[in-house]
């Protein structure tokens, strides 16, 4: 019958596609057994090597002066809007800084918070010339804060042997710089332990 011929032609074509490495005689031999085991031939995929994007080295960043603030930009008034944004960020982070909020909770949040835009004051220091410096944090590095004062002076204050106070909505927090020598990105993932006594 015509239907069986069409079926046979379809099966022959299907087997040739499925088993491209076998000859016609071998395919016919398989058909006479009435048992077909299809073989799978996987095509080898050529893996494309991913090119790693290389960033600048620390030396290149210094040579390009990427982190330096131009003298004409070193003005306290320019960064006041940044401080207002920071205050809103902290309020959202600490769920509104309500009067009944637990100090330990707020302290824990502030330890991991981004401090760019915060107004800080050096309250204690082993170097007396640092005591009393107040300003907005413009840049935070592993070992230093860069602070712009109301007198439009950019101060580089080391974290080591300094205690900083931070005030927002009546809540005052103290940062012990010696225990705070981390980059902002590393600090957000660190677990801080409460210690009874901390000295400079």
Automatic annotation (TrEMBL):
SMART domains: POP4 (SM00538). GO terms for cellular component: nucleolus; ribonuclease MRP complex; ribonuclease P complex. Keywords: Nucleus, Phosphoprotein, tRNA processing. It holds the Pfam family RNase_P-MRP_p29. One of its GO terms (molecular function) is ribonuclease P RNA binding. Its main location: nucleus. It is found in: Nucleus, Nucleolus. Gene3D superfamilies: Ribonuclease P/MRP, subunit p29. GO terms for biological process: rRNA processing; tRNA 5'-leader removal. It comes from the Eukaryota. Belongs to the eukaryotic/archaeal RNase P protein component 1 family. Component of ribonuclease P, a ribonucleoprotein complex that generates mature tRNA molecules by cleaving their 5'-ends. Component of nuclear RNase P and RNase MRP ribonucleoproteins. RNase P consists of a catalytic RNA moiety and 10 different protein chains; POP1, POP4, POP5, POP7, RPP14, RPP21, RPP25, RPP30, RPP38 and RPP40. Within the RNase P complex, POP1, POP7 and RPP25 form the 'finger' subcomplex, POP5, RPP14, RPP40 and homodimeric RPP30 form the 'palm' subcomplex, and RPP21, POP4 and RPP38 form the 'wrist' subcomplex. All subunits of the RNase P complex interact with the catalytic RNA. Several subunits of RNase P are also part of the RNase MRP complex. This is Ribonuclease P protein subunit p29. It comes from Charadrius vociferus (Killdeer).
